[in-house]
Amino acid sequence: MTRPTGELSVPRVIAVAVALITIFGALLADFVIPASAVQHLRNDAWPPHAKFHDAQYIVMSILLGALALVLLIRREGGTRTRIWTACAILATPWLGLFGAMLFPGIAIQDPGFDNESIIGLHPQMLLAAVLLALLLVAALFSARPEHTGRPDN
User: Fold this and answer.
1) In this predicted model, what pLDDT tens digit does every residue of 110-149 receive, in sequence order?
2) Interatomic CA distance for residues 131 and 125, integer angstroms
3) Closest Cα partner for 134 from 102, 100, 96, 94?
4) How far is residue 114's CA from residue 142's CA, in Å, rounded to a whole number?
5) SS3 118
C-alpha cells in the first residue's frame, strides 16, 4: 500500500525534527543562549576571523536546514528520493563536526570552559551523533516496502 505523497510518515517526521534542530540549533547555541554563546560568538577572546567562521557555520546550518525542510514539506515528486536527499543535506553540518576533529591544532572547546562529557562525548558531539543516527533511521524507514510502491516513492 502506497502512502499519499503529502502524508506525514515516520521518516518525514524524524527528518523534519532534525531539520528544525539544524535550522535553529547553531544560532541559539552559538549566538543567543548566553551560557553557550559566551563560548562562541560572544567570546571576547575569539579574534574577529574566528567569529566570522562561526557565523558562517550558523548561516550554513540555517540554509541547509531550510533547504531540507522545503524538500520534506513539498507534495510533488517521489517521497523516498526527497527524504533521502533531505537526510543527506541535513547530515552535512553534523558530519562536519566529526570531520573537524581530524584537523591538527583544534579543540572541541576553548580553555577555561568545562562542558562535562556525556557518555564520554562533548555535548555537541553527542547531539551530532544522535541526530545522525536519527537521519539514518529516517532513511532506512523510507526504504521500507510500503514506501516504495511507486518507482520513485
Assistant:
1) 888 877 888 988 899 999 999 999 999 999 999 877 544 4
2) 10
3) 94
4) 39
5) strand
Q: Are 78 and 6 in contact (CB under 8 A)?
A: no
Coil, helix or strand at residue 57: helix
Distance CA 137, CA 44 (A): 40
Q: Determine how many CB atoms are found less than 10 A away from the CB of residue 3.
A: 14
**CA separation for the pair 31, 93 (Å, rounded):** 17
The better pLDDT of the pair 98, 117 is held by 98
The gap from C-alpha 37 to its chain's centroid, in whole angstroms, comes to 18
- Unique residue bearing C-alpha cell 570552559: 113
Amino acid letter, 24: F
The predicted-structure confidence for 52-92, as pLDDT tens digits, reads as follows: 999 999 999 999 999 999 999 988 778 899 999 999 999 99
* Rounded distance between C-alpha atoms, residue 75 and residue 47, angstroms: 45
- Which residue in the block uniquely carries the three cell numbers 503529502? 6
Which candidate, 149, 142, 3, 126, places its Cα nearest to that of 75? 3
C-alpha angle 38-39-41 in degrees, rounded to nearest 5: 70
Give the DSSP letter string of 89-107: HHHHHHHHHHHHTTSTT--
